[in-house]
Amino acid sequence: xxxxxxxxxxxxxxxxxxxxxxxxxxxxxxxxxxxxxxxxxxxxxxxxxxxxxxxxxxxxxxxxxxxxxxxxxxxxxxxxxxxxxxxxxxxxxxxxxxxxxxxxxxxxxxxxxxxxxxxxxxxxxxxxxxxxxxxxxxxxxxxxxxxxxxxxxxxxxxxxxxxxxxxxxxxxxxxxxxxxxxxxxxxxxxxxxxxxxxxxxxxxxxxxxxxxxxxxxxxxxxxxxxxxxxxxxxxxxxxxxxxxxxxxxxxxxxxxxxxxxxxxxxxxxxxxxxxxxxxxxxxxxxxxxxxxxxxxxxxxxxxxxxxxxxxxxxxxxxxxxxxxxxxxxxxxxxxxxxxxxxxxxxxxxxxxxxxxxxxxxxxxxxxxxxxxxxxxxxxxxxxxxxxxxxxxxxxxxxxxxxxxxxxxxxxxxxxxxxxxxxxxxxxxxxxxxxxxxxxxxxxxxxxxxxxxxxxxxxxxxxxxxxxxxxxxxxxxxxxxxxxxxxxxxxxxxxxxxxxxxxxxxxxxxxxxxxxxxxxxxxxxxxxxxxxxxxxxxxxxxxxxxxxxxxxxxx
Length: 554
What we know:
seven-stranded antiparallel beta sheet; eight-stranded mixed β-barrel
């Protein structure tokens, strides 16, 4: 290629919008098109003759200059390194990431090189933005749960390698529900933003990580700190939040937090276990009155119980996904008349991965505490309705089935709609369904409980108040709760023949129930003596091991 050919090539690429530079074999600048001038900031400025002055390349992290030479431009590894790790400095001092493509040319006086420089600033910015949104909470700008879990796992890996400890702090706002309910979600969101800034300002370590884990829960990873080092900081953080006052619509709200702390040492635990330990300690701090922190200790019985319950969460979710729950039933027998329609209470058991049966006392407390009980209630309802539908298709007489509901379910506005849809889908007679809720759950939100009972009765279902008599003001609530059955708390039944106080209590409950048009059911009927006593009192139904033990629903 002669000089005339180079001029023709230069003329051809002058109009190209992609920045192009041609240099000689010695690194002298032979040609720069208008797009390259604009990119590098040399529009109205005389061009330098040396490529390293025209195109200063700097390592993005080390900030060291990287010299370009024609020899290096022939090295694919060198090009890859600068494309991935370097930036170009403009004449005005700003910089941009780039991708450079090099094409060798043959000219009259030897070899030349054509450099095509592509600005990656907008591409990199878009990628960074997408990565930020994947790893950060949109409301507060903090790391999200997924990114925090990754950081915790990295800290655990580092602790195993270097034997240095870190601290994991799990934080929950004590008054968040009050503000959310009284002022609305907009106020709740603003509180989260303000608290995020307060917590961010409290961080002291260069590598400390603050994240929003969801709802009103935050996580802090204190890098390379021991509990002794961090305790003064923890106390100050609790004080700073307590001194902070949140204002909304001319109202001021005092704020406090509960915090749980877990030490990340060189133990072989997963990030999930570490997070579970800190969460268990946070829950204990909240149970102890809030505005404090608790350090997780495996020897603490309450914390150990909480940790055990949390371990059940994943097992329950997995069992639901794998359909490893099973319906059981226990007969409810009329005391004074022959059986016209079979009555039974529907129970639930969990099957372990090896097929063994797990009793409800092991998994139900965790399901209730961690808001999984709604999913479980829905599973039981759907499966029971399907079972009744199959009996109906086989022209077998349908039993009257009592199904237990949690307080969480009856307080859920959409739950009534779910039951109505399931009744319609299954095609069963609603009169064969009785829903049971404990007295304690019902009186927690009396208005919602009453509304739900009325909605069920309008569908044709009946309703029972379970464990009746356990509350201090049980009789007072009966005027508000129009139930069909009273199930007398088993604590009054176990020693009924030998305890005059229990006998008086059961008589009172039975009499009040009769006056209000309700049927009475006695639980924990374990022998004929109790059954005879109940018959003399006039209780309508009996249930317990003396009648029938629970068994899988056939």
